[in-house]
């Protein structure tokens, strides 16, 4: 008895824990789904009850004996009270009525479940995407990209299947409870037998469920790793093909596919075992009930048949519930992964201030700012002021902290110590997205979307006359106009995945044109011309020089020839500002800068 109670408590805990997970997204919709399922069971039970009066008529009884219905006799009593004669026609009419209502309830139940499932998937996707967008940049650069992609795509689909299986199991649990309730009204002994049979099947399925849950966790792990390998395979396809290493990397993918196959097979075999065992178990318990009812309890055949109808319905519901629960457990690893993923996103969310920045109007001040990656300090006690419409270049050897400092200014990360003020407002109190909307950011690796040139530059703006004019102006500034005219589809040319259809220099110029198209105050160029040939680089550099005084321009450059005209050059070394001044001042006073210039000229 103690073991039985422990089992029931364990089941309740499992169901309650997962019920809370779904309730968090669905709210009242969960109870609508459950209520409709219960209505289906009740109407089905009433319909089944009408078979007993028919059985008594088959036995040539002149009148229906209400006592044989137990506490459900109120149905027949109600018919008599309404003046409806208890005839075969009347019973058949009520039978059809109950099952018609059951069909209507089933339709609304299934339709609403589909609605709730789609709502659930939309909510889980949008909430996860919202948290991902708030993830701190520092955490993102160390995150498992394969896990992110798999969780946002494949894992959401598996959680959707978990939803369907969970509520299928829940629905069957409700139906079993309803049928057992009807059975209790007809025969208490029968209700005890149903309960006993249900416990037996639960013990049988428990071992299978445990193995399924373990297999589900392994499947999620394998899927995350496979997605990571796919991303690497696509991103590095050109290199792998050029160096004859596609087969080597393909072998890694093949091995991971085999692991995925084994995990899926394991789950499939366990599911097949449950499906195959369902009917034999059902017949075994039904046979046992017939023997107990007739041989031991001495019941008559009529009530036994009605009892068996309820019993069959209840036990079938319990077995379907067990099967659905096992399918749910097969996807439970994805729910655990999704829950853990969202908790990680929440724990590493970027703090968001409330003050909106309509535009950059004065200065950005950094005072005693330091940034660390783990135990390594990449920026150490930086103090600098950037004035509006000033052109500032950051120079230094690789690893000196140039890009990190620019990322800090752009609001991509927060300082571990020190203060940052934008137009006199503390950065921590600013809605950083409102500030970032005023920034144009051109990186060393150009960002190209799998879309047309027009959409890549305008970021899907409507082709209004005003937008088209701005688009053409940005093409001119980025020295792209002549190239666009040589293309058959002009600005409607598709660029392919990561701009595979164009050269590196063309991709970089499109990236530059995009930022010049936007309405910005600050233009950041992080090695923006590194992929360009000397002639194109000079053309774009001349265009950038024309923008001096119109924007606050921040330039990170290894090619020191591109920053000669900067208002100020900040020389970085080991995460600190070594010196700052004009190109000529650094050539005279900074030995490190002079050595760098000399080496590049050589």
Structure description:
The structure is a single chain. With 602 residues, the chain is of the alpha/beta class. Helices cover 64% and strands 10% of the residues. It has 21 helices and ten strands. The strands form two sheets. Strands 6-7-8-3-9-10 form a six-stranded mixed β-sheet, with helices on both faces. Helix 2 packs antiparallel against helix 5 and helix 2 runs parallel beside helix 8.
In short:
64% of the residues lie in helices and 10% in strands. It is an alpha/beta fold and 602 residues long.
How would the blueprint of this fold be written?
Layout: H1 2-26, H2 29-49, H3 51-58, H4 74-81, H5 88-133, H6 137-140, H7 145-152, H8 154-186, H9 188-235, H10 237-242, H11 246-296, H12 301-347, E1 363-373, E2 376-387, E3 391-396, H13 402-409, E4 417-422, E5 425-426, H14 432-436, E6 439-442, H15 453-458, H16 465-477, H17 481-485, H18 504-517, E7 522-526, H19 534-546, E8 552-556, E9 568-573, E10 576-581, H20 583-589, H21 591-601
Parallel strand pairs: 3-8, 3-9, 6-7, 7-8
Antiparallel strand pairs: 1-2, 1-4, 4-5, 9-10
Helix pairs in contact: 2-5, 2-8, 3-12, 5-8, 7-9, 8-9, 8-12, 9-11, 9-12, 11-12, 16-18, 20-21
């Amino acid at each position: 008895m103690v073991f039985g109670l422990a089992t029931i408590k364990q089941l309740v805990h499992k169901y309650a824990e997962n019920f809370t997970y779904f309730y968090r997204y669905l709210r009242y919709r969960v109870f609508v789904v459950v209520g409709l399922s219960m209505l289906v069971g009740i109407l089905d039970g009433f319909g089944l009850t009408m078979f007993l009066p028919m059985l008594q008529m088959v036995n040539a009884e002149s009148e229906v004996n209400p006592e044989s219905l137990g506490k459900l006799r109120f149905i027949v009593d109600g018919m008599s009270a309404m003046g409806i004669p208890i005839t075969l026609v009347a019973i058949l009419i009520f039978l059809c009525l109950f099952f018609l209502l059951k069909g209507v309830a089933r339709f609304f139940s299934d339709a609403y479940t589909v609605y709730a499932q789609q709502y659930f998937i939309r909510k889980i996707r949008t909430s996860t995407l919202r948290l991902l967008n708030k993830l701190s940049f520092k955490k993102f650069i160390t995150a498992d990209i394969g896990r992110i992609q798999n969780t946002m795509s494949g894992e959401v689909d598996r959680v959707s299947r978990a939803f369907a299986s969970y509520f299928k199991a829940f629905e069957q649990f409700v139906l079993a409870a309803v049928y057992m309730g009807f059975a209790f009204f007809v025969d208490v002994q029968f209700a005890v037998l149903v309960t006993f049979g249900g416990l037996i099947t639960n013990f049988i399925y428990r071992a299978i469920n445990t193995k399924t849950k373990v297999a589900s966790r392994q499947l999620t792990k394998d899927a995350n790793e496979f997605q990571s390998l796919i991303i690497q395979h696509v991103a590095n396809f050109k290199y792998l093909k050029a160096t004859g290493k596609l087969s080597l990397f393909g072998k890694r993918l093949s091995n991971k596919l085999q692991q995925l196959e084994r995990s899926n097979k394991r789950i499939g075999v366990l599911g097949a075992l449950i499906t195959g065992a369902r009917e034999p178990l059902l017949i075994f318990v039904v046979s046992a009930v017939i023997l107990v009812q007739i041989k031991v309890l001495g019941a008559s055949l009529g009530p036994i048949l009605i009892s068996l109808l309820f019993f069959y319905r209840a036990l079938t519901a319990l077995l379907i519930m067990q099967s659905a629960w096992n399918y749910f457990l097969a996807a439970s690893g994805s729910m655990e992964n999704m829950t853990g993923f969202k908790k990680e996103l929440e724990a590493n969310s970027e703090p968001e201030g409330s003050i909106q920045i309509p535009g950059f109007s004065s200065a950005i001040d950094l005072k005693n700012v330091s940034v660390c990656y783990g135990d390594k300090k990449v920026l150490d006690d930086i103090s600098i002021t950037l004035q509006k419409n000033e052109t500032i270049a950051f120079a230094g050897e690789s690893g000196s902290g140039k890009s990190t400092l620019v990322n800090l200014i752009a609001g991509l990360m927060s300082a571990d110590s020190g203060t940052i003020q934008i137009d006199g407002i503390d950065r921590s109190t600013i809605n950083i997205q409102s500030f970032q909307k005023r920034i144009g950011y051109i990186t060393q690796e150009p960002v190209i979307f799998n879309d047309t040139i027009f959409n890549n530059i305008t970021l899907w703006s409507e082709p209004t006359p005003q937008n088209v004019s701005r688009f053409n102006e940005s093409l001119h500034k980025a020295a792209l106009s002549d190239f666009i005219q040589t293309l058959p589809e002009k600005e409607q040319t598709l660029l392919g995945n990561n701009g595979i259809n164009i050269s590196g220099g063309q991709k970089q110029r499109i990236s530059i044109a995009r930022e010049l198209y936007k309405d910005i105050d600050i233009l950041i160029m992080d090695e923006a011309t590194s992929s360009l040939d000397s002639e194109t680089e000079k053309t774009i550099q001349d265009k950038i020089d024309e923008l001096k005084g119109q924007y606050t321009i921040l330039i990170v450059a290894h090619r020191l020839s591109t920053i000669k005209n900067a208002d100020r050059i900040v020389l970085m070394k080991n995460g600190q500002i070594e010196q700052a001044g004009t190109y000529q001042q650094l050539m005279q006073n900074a030995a490190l800068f002079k050595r760098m210039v000399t080496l590049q000229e050589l």
